[in-house]
Amino acid sequence: MGKNILLTIAYDGSAFHGWQKQPDEFTVQGHLERVMTGLFKREILLNGTSRTDAGVHALDQKASFVSDVNIPTDRLARVINNALCGGEKGSFAKAPVRILDAREMPEDFHARFSCKGKKYIYKIKDESDELSMVFDRNYVYHVRERLDTEAMKTAAALLKGTHDFKSFEASGGNPRTTTVRTIFDADITGKDGEMELHISGDGFLYNMVRIITGTLIEIGQGKRSPQEMEKIIAAADRQAAGFTAPPYGLYLAEVYY
Amino acid sequence: MGKNILLTIAYDGSAFHGWQKQPDEFTVQGHLERVMTGLFKREILLNGTSRTDAGVHALDQKASFVSDVNIPTDRLARVINNALCGGEKGSFAKAPVRILDAREMPEDFHARFSCKGKKYIYKIKDESDELSMVFDRNYVYHVRERLDTEAMKTAAALLKGTHDFKSFEASGGNPRTTTVRTIFDADITGKDGEMELHISGDGFLYNMVRIITGTLIEIGQGKRSPQEMEKIIAAADRQAAGFTAPPYGLYLAEVYY
What we know:
- Two copies of one chain form a homodimer.
- The first copy, chain A, has helices spanning about 30-40, 75-85, 130-135, 150-155, 210-220, 230-235, and strands spanning about 5-10, 45-50, 55-65, 95-105, 115-125, 140, 160-165, 180-190, 195-200, 250-255.
- By secondary structure, chain A is of the alpha+beta class.
- Chain A starts with a strand and ends with a strand.
- Chains A and B meet through strand 4, helix 3 and strand 6 of A and strand 4, helix 3 and strand 6 of B.
């Protein structure tokens, strides 16, 4: 019986076709498993916490694997990172995914089922800055008009608590037994044309953060009032909510155990 | 006889195989000419100021073309930008190259030969920040150890003035009649592990800024003294200088006319 190792992983989603392994696509899971299997000379299978979509970034993805590798756990991150950089060392390292931490967990720990909640960040810029549109285009969602951040804050606060979030679920996700979720916190922060939605909860439906973001942007644009958020939740109907904001502004920011 | 139009162009070099048009490579010039030719329904040929290498960014590239296009010059940038975004408008625009400005110039103006000088910026981080290594990997050169920025400032100042910069010329560039150039200014700015080399001059040899950066980094690492910069210049020998810093930290920042 090998050790149950939990990895903390950061990646630039613009370089990958999402987390989940797929036959002919460059995915984070597929890439990590291939590199680690080559490095450790035995098949490595990763059990990831969150199946981030293509273009979505991670500051704190988690994935576990069973390891009988003869390397001390506190050196694992460095060893894998060197392999991810193609063996190049030190200053020349350049890779779109890196291991931030590796630690041994109890035998019954499961990266997905033991997860108590997650936090996401969605980054928005509402200034028409051409240079930023060139260099941040994969990392921030650019909105041309000024958004009313106070209205967005008010609406975000209405998401807190336990609700049926069916209005914010896209079709195409995994089957769910319930669409009720608890949002621990939801807030808009930022200044000078840059803002971030910070939202944490015990779980999220398919595309839920992106649909919430799209709805908040429509509120910021004045197309909807902040108070409408309550009606949108009560409708339990995807048609009631706003558009789905694009993946590239979204970051998986924290996984709670 | 058409108008002589000068474009100011910004691009993310990580998306392109350099400026110059090449058969089978996605280049800035090739992409712009293709999109503009399709948009204006006539062949557009761009005359660019600087042939930036693959991975090198531009905040202020210039390129001219002869235009008999029936669109007011002050609307050209917007029209081309919409076409560069595949016709998508407003919030959804996402492209690695954008036109910042378009203006009519005198008939005898030439984007390259009328150029009086250029400014480059080279971005370096010397903090071991894994998240930044993931998300800034195409935009900043990461050095693992702390650099002595004061030593680098002292050495950079020795570059100012008119010198033979043969030590800082890579092979493979265009034939030169002389390797003497005048550096107007060279300085290191920044704080908290982020620094920038700002260097301006009347012209630069092939890979000159990247070799100067590599040499300054070796000085910052304490492998060379700042005063050695004078000897390196005097040697007029590529072997005397430091390594060639990678392209992705380099930005064409300004073109002087």
